[in-house]
């Protein structure tokens, strides 16, 4: 737990899967559509047991998609995600934060194809996620670039804050799962939305009903540090 009275929020880092999107995992969503859930479960177990690294996990997952859907392209993936709506309250939450002078960013372990779309539709300039790899014809190739490792969101938050010139006392993190814990611990305010992990609930400064509730909580504490300083 943090001390909200010591925070003056200027930047909010949002997780995407399960927070801004209704699906818990964009990787899992592709596996479900491709019929490769069994491969997904095996790859997850190998990673969690420390037998493979994050890049190898990306490689095996994307290889499974290619084998199940030969010739799949970036545009196929964009079409696949086109039916996944952005949670309606996300638009309003980002808008009211922006009007208060608070920057929003996306820090996601999700598929960059959908994370980039979320950023574009919400008008969010800064985002980071693992990047899939495509050949010159737009066809998916195995592997990718782990610009963000799902369990190390703290590094992404620190890097983003440094880039924008903010201290971590000016950063809030909004997440829902165990993959968000390190990012939540690093930020000055940690808010859980739709949490599905007891550890997230225990470590959050606030468990919000939805993104709008989370935004209002952030606004409530954004200038406390200034008033008390």
TrEMBL record:
Its cofactor is Mg(2+). Keywords: Amino-acid biosynthesis, Hydrolase, Magnesium, Metal-binding, Serine biosynthesis. Its EC number is 3.1.3.3. Pfam families: Hydrolase. Gene3D superfamilies: HAD superfamily/HAD-like. Pathway: Amino-acid biosynthesis; L-serine biosynthesis; L-serine from 3-phospho-D-glycerate: step 3/3. InterPro entries: HAD-like_SerB, HAD-like_sf, HAD-SF_hydro_IB_PSP-like_arc, HAD_sf. It is an enzyme of class 3 (hydrolase). This is phosphoserine phosphatase. It comes from Pyrodictium abyssi. The lineage of its organism: Archaea, Thermoproteota, Thermoprotei, Desulfurococcales, Pyrodictiaceae.
